[in-house]
Amino acid sequence: MPDRGGGPTGPRIRAGRPSRRVRGLLMTLGVLAVLGMAFTMFAGFWTDWLWYRSVHYSSVFTTTLSTKIGLFFVFGLLMAVAVGVNIWVAHRMRPPLSAMSMEQQSLDRYRMGIAPYKKWLLLAVTALVGLIAGASASSQWRIWLMWVNGVPFHQKDPQFHLDVSFYAFDLPWYRFLLGFGFAAAILSLIAAALTHYLYGGLRLTSPGARATAAATGHLSVLLGIFVALKAVAYWLDRYGLAVKSSDFKATGNWTGLRYVDANAYLPAKTILFCIAVICALLFFATLWRRTWQLPVIGFGLMVLSAILIGGLYPAIVQKFQVQPNEQAKEAPYVQKNLKATREAYGIDDAKVTEYSGQSTTKDKTKLRDDADAAASIRIMDPNIVSPTFQQLQQMKNYYGFPTNLDVDRYPAKDGKNTKDQDTVLGLRELNLDGIPKNNWINDHFRYTHGYGVVAAKGTEADSQGQPVFTEYDLPSRGELPTYEQRIYYGEKTTTYSIVGGPQKEIDYSDDSGEKTTSYTGKSGVNLDNPVNRAAYAVAFNEPQILYSGAIGKGSRILYNRTPKERVEAVAPWLTIDGDAYPAVVKGRIQWIVDAYTTSNGYPYSSRTTLGDTTADSLTATNNNRTVVAQQNQVNYIRNSVKATVDAYTGDVKLYQWDTQDPVLKTWMKAFPGTVKPRSAISPELMAHLRYPQDLFKVQRELLTRYHVTDAQTFLTGSEVWQVPDDPTNKSGSAVPPYYLSMKMPDQAKQAFSLSTTFTPNGRDNLSAFMSVDAEAGTSDYGKIRILKLPTSTTVDGPKQVQSQFNSEQDIAAAIRLLKGGDSDIEYGNLLTVPLDGGLLYVEPVYVRGGGLKYPLLRKVLVTYEGKTAFENTLDAALDKVFGATGSTTTPPDTGTSNPPTSTNPTVQQALDDAQKAFDAGQQALRNPDGADWAAYAKAQKDLQAALKRAQEAEAKAAQSGSGKNADKSSAKGGGKSSN
């Protein structure tokens, strides 16, 4: 019997071949995998379209997408055709295969192997290079749109006298085309050479001619095209010198032509252009004269010329003409760089004024009054008091405040009058880490939004060192007009929420328990459509979106919810400022986001990296404060757009701010209808717009060198400044600029300003003080003032002032006592205020610890012309420094205050004890024989213990469900959290 099992006499089953069932299963799995990948790609595309349509910026999506697709197909097709045609031509020019050599015999196997698949192989190669080229071209959509829509700057460069738009909009596109041409020529040359070699047109080891006449002509034309493109590159390089970056020993980073560029590189590029054109013609001539001799000689001469004329000659000019008399040779070009850089960064109108640094007034009473008029000195540091806001106004664990609060201006009552005051504020945003139980329903359906603004006076603290709240409690109440308090879009809202459906949301809690709500806004994407649900289930990798019963009619998904993220998405051509801030405008909470147009093609303007120039001690500890485009190198910047994001609806509005900016005009042509005119800004919104910090930081970094307008002084480097390190921060980072209402010497009254200090390069004394009018809508908005200190005398800088504070014997002893036990000292912003020719420094000092988890203002440090005070209040410190009581100051602190009350007897007893301890501490400080520090330390210990007892009793009452609001704030808003 035959062996049915596959023995020697039976049928053989092919080893390794799968059965029909397995093949069918594999094919099915393959089809499903392809469909899955296709739907995944579709889901990403579809959800993007839905989102842009939901925010009413679908034109941004369609314009960007159509531009990318157009560039992909046009340049992908061009590359595919270029390579494919050259392969086809090389194949058509193949010689007859006869009397093959050993080399050709070895290649014959490959020719025979690919013969049945030649068309498919040609299609595969051309498709591959086309896909790569198309993908590369589609990423250049910004350059294309700027080239097509570019508008003139109406400013010409000083070397070639071309409009700046040529360098900003045209030259980048020409360089891309040139790079594409080089890639197409090189790939075509390689593909043609390989084809000629495969089919015998090129021979490496065979006897006789190495190349056929047809191969010689074909490859020569391709080499001629390559050399012709090199000629174009030499010509464009001439203009590229105006925007070329280089290291310049005298100035560091440099952009534009120097002496060697104008007198060596520029003529060298022109000569090399002519040589390259001649060399290209020699390559083309091989179509008639089938020899490589002349083209090769020409190409060799071009390479030699590039080395001698383009490399050696400029080095000789630099060595023997420039270096012996560098300042004289470089001065005219430095002057062009100075002018262009100041124009490109908007610092050309910066007003530099000599400032003595010494007071001229002897009348102490007048100086004391002038100190009050010079600035509304902010002793509530927004970068310190966030934990205090958290502790006193969080109300529920699922709310939170940003690490750094914001400073804005709001009207406040001053007797019968109303005036704007500096206000520290933050939003009570959703904090998912604090919800009672994390699960999908809680995280995305029930806990969806924050609630209310919390604001406090920037210039005051209460008797316990707490902020004086002007907006407080939950729901928020106080001095602000009625507004929509729900916050669905904020800096801490980084996850998606599904709202408006059958699942109710937790709104807030009060004495009667939890309140629920349903979102009634129109933002977000509707999930009624099953296709939409499936797409979001795939895009968010969350299958429950597809089948969850919590999603029903009216359900909408909210995502991309941080203000900066939304503005960047709807305007991808803008650079977003690192600090979005909230404001209450016409009954709504609006996030205000500053946005910039930038370019790195402004001739002669020095480049800077945004991430480096905007870094300071705040960005070092808080990533939310960093500029979005960290690595962008720019040499032109404008705050061209003010954007708002509604905290409830998420609506994004872009307003044209700089009406003269040609870059913004270009983008407005590319994306018509996306930016509203400046006239659309309401007066209520205008009142809260301000000069942006990141632009100010870029400008101050440039002004460390470019405050000088004389080329000779600039080259010596004798006037170079630096931004000092933050003396209150151990990160070693630059001091941040501070918002402050203050009066510069040439101003009649205080103006909301942004200010900073400068020190000499490598030293700690003060070189200059800089401020900019930050209040939008005023005639002086954006005006930069610099007070330059004399070099003949030294004025203490921030680091020296801080050292002076720390080295004062009495102050050091007081700080040691404040640090008693487990307390820590936190220094607030060191503010600098010009006053009567001198400089007034003010620094709040906070204490955290001893049972308190949040900082309280305990002391204020003040120094003026060497006199230092360390007192409980700002007024007391100013009185001591000037030795007089100002006519406009409030009476000195008597150490007494209206004690807070509570309906909980345990809490009330603890508060009474705390008040007694506080009064005892104040009495110890006012001891006629000198401060009794031992008694003060004991009083502080008793105060901390009493406050701790009050907190524990309050928390216990809250947990038992009674006395939840037993310790509400007084009329000043000094409420405490029940959590």
Keyword list:
alpha+beta; disordered N terminus; 979 residues; 19% strand; six-stranded mixed beta sheet; disordered C terminus; single chain
Explain what you see.
- It is a single chain.
- The protein contains 26 helices and 35 strands.
- 42% of the residues lie in helices and 19% in strands.
- The strands form ten sheets. Strands 3, 26, 27, 28, 29 and 30 form a six-stranded mixed β-sheet that branches. Strands 18, 19, 20, 23, 24 and 25 form a six-stranded mixed β-sheet that branches. Strands 5-6-9-10-11 form a five-stranded antiparallel β-sheet, with helices on one face.
- It is globular and about 110 Å long.
- Helix 2 packs antiparallel against helix 4 (118-138), helix 2 (58-92) packs parallel to helix 6 (164-198) and helix 5 (141-149) crosses helix 18.
- With 979 residues, it is an alpha+beta fold.
- Among the domains are: 47-95 and 118-206, no CATH class; 212-344, no CATH class; 495-561, no CATH class.
